């Protein structure tokens, strides 16, 4: 498979979001594969702090030179923090998708949902399938 | 699906191949569309544009025939000149926008890939009344564009033709990298640059020679995304977006290229009428006041009502602003008029601004 970066300290949704959990807070972003597929990101729209979201809701938007894509909540809960700096620095999504370019944090209402997300090996298979 | 002769080269360079007007072409290379865009504004970029069509117009009536089908006054072209023009239907709507290159008493017409068959049919129909042949030479003619402030220096390393003596919108024949080439000082980026026409069998040789000649000058191979963002900033129309078979060139603010004073041509009566009465809608430049990416087809709202639509929109890489070209009713086309664009279901504020967003270097 190509040279995408995968992190084994988090889980993934089929729609290419990652979630990393500390306590009952999950930090969410999009994968290296997703940023690569999007190409140069020019715009990010984030949810509001305090918004209640359900797993699978379209809660953010990421737009590249050519396409607009929804970012889905991989988990249910309340948005407790957003990456305020990201909308002014959309290129971070390309540069550091697993770090600086986190999108939002969810206080999980159903932490069991996390176990339903894909582990890194399962997610690699999803990417492999999409590539072919 | 058509592949250009450079398909394998694009893949080897890491080009991301997509379908465009029936052709598989790179939308970008690994540098990415924004880096490619900046390369053309500051150094140089090389584009495979073999999907474009070329017709030769030959015969004693070549000039009167072109005067009949073109909105531009083709009699103004001297032997080595090249000029932009439109072809219109009788009702003034656009068949295609083209570039005309005069070669002695013959003419080459460069047409959009998506319109190639339609244009050939249209021109052949109109040619019946004239002693003229219109032949499609696209398959045997390759077309590359080398664009940017360093294009002249790079190309000069490969040719004996004195490029410094070639004004904008002229063409000269000569050898480039040993290949017999028609060199046009033309392009679609808003920068100085060249478009090259040569035997399609030499495509790989020419491509490699140019990339090699420019490797120390920041020359990048560029894809369709950069081609689109570059032409957008300079506000050059793209067929299927700003112009099409349901819009006339006056509304598209291309009236300069409609020479109603030159005498009869197809579409003249309709265009004269639109010119005299004033178009009902106009193409304008919009700058977002709220954040958001306007894209083709998004409604433009005036006082909350959909009254127009975006034809092209994006974040401009050079100006770092969210910009759009859009049709709006003429009464709302004045600079400074505030409108809204419906983006993902939300109205976002925008204002009518001056065009072009980026003034082409050779026009300053």
CATH class of chain A: Mainly Beta
How much of the sequence lies in strands of chain A comes to 25-35%
Radius of gyration of chain B: 20 Å
Average predicted confidence as pLDDT of chain B: 97
Q: Low-confidence segments of chain A, ≥5 residues, pLDDT <50?
A: none
What this model shows, in words?
The complex is a heterodimer of chains A (132) and B (364). With 132 residues, chain A is an alpha+beta fold. Chain A has one domain: RNA polymerase II/Efflux pump adaptor protein, barrel-sandwich hybrid domain (OB fold (Dihydrolipoamide Acetyltransferase, E2P), Beta Barrel), CATH 2.40.50.100. Chain A is built from 4 helices and 9 strands, in the order βββαβββββαβαα. Chain A has a 6-stranded antiparallel beta sheet. Chain A has a 3-stranded antiparallel beta sheet with strand order 4-6-7. By secondary structure, chain B is α+β, with helices and mostly antiparallel strands. Chain B has 3 domains: 146 residues, Gyrase A, domain 2; 83 residues, 2-Layer Sandwich (Alpha-Beta Plaits), CATH 3.30.70.1400; 76 residues, Aminomethyltransferase beta-barrel domains (Elongation Factor Tu (Ef-tu), domain 3, Beta Barrel), CATH 2.40.30. In chain B, the strands form 4 sheets. A 6-stranded mixed beta sheet of chain B has the order 11-12-13-10-4-14. In chain B, helix 2 packs across helix 7. The mean pLDDT of chain B is 97. Chains A and B meet through strand 4 of A and loops of B.
């Amino acid at each position: 498979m190509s040279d995408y970066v995968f992190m084994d300290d988090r889980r993934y949704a089929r729609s290419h979001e990652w979630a990393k959990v500390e306590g009952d807070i999950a930090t969410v972003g999009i994968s290296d594969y997703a940023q690569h597929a999007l190409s140069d990101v020019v715009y990010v729209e984030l949810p509001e702090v305090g918004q209640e979201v359900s797993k699978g809701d379209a809660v953010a938007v990421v737009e590249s030179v050519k396409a607009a894509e929804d970012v889905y909540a991989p988990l249910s809960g309340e948005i407790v923090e957003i990456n305020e700096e990201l909308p002014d620095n959309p290129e971070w999504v390309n540069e550091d998708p697993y770090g600086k370019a986190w999108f939002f944090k969810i206080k999980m209402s159903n932490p069991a949902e996390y176990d339903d997300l894909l582990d890194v090996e399962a997610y690699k298979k999803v990417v492999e399938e999409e590539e072919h | 699906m058509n592949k250009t002769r450079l398909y394998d080269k694009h893949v080897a360079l890491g080009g991301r191949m997509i379908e465009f007007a029936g052709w598989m072409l790179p939308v970008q290379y690994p540098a990415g569309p924004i880096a490619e865009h900046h390369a053309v504004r500051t150094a140089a970029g090389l584009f495979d544009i073999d999907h474009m069509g070329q017709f030769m117009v030959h015969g004693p009536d070549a000039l009167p025939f072109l005067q009949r089908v073109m909105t531009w006054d083709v009699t103004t072209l001297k032997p080595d000149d090249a000029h932009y023009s439109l072809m219109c239907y009788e009702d003034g709507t656009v068949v295609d926008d083209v570039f005309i290159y005069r070669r002695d008493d013959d003419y080459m017409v460069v047409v959009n890939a998506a319109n190639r068959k339609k244009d050939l049919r249209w021109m052949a129909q109109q040619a019946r009344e004239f002693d003229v042949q219109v032949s499609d030479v696209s398959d045997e003619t390759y077309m590359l564009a080398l664009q940017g402030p360093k294009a002249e220096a790079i190309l000069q390393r490969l040719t004996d033709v004195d490029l410094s003596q070639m004004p904008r919108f002229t063409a000269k024949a000569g050898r480039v990298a040993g290949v017999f080439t028609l060199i046009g000082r033309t392009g679609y980026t808003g920068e100085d640059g060249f478009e090259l026409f040569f035997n399609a069998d030499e495509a790989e040789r020419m491509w490699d020679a140019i990339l090699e000649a420019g490797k120390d000058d920041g020359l990048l191979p560029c894809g369709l995304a950069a081609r689109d963002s570059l032409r957008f900033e300079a506000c050059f129309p793209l067929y299927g977006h700003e112009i099409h078979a349901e819009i006339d060139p006056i509304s598209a603010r291309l009236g300069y290229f409609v020479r109603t004073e030159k005498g009869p041509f197809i579409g003249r009566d309709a265009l004269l009428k639109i010119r005299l009465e004033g178009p009902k809608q106009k193409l304008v430049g919009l700058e977002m006041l709220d954040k958001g990416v306007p894209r083709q087809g998004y409604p433009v709202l005036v006082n909350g009502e959909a009254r127009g639509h975006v034809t092209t929109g994006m974040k401009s890489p050079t100006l770092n602003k969210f910009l759009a070209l859009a049709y709006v009713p003429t009464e709302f086309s004045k600079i400074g008029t505030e409108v809204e664009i419906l983006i993902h279901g939300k109205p976002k504020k925008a204002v009518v601004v001056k065009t072009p967003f980026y003034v082409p270097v050779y026009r300053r």
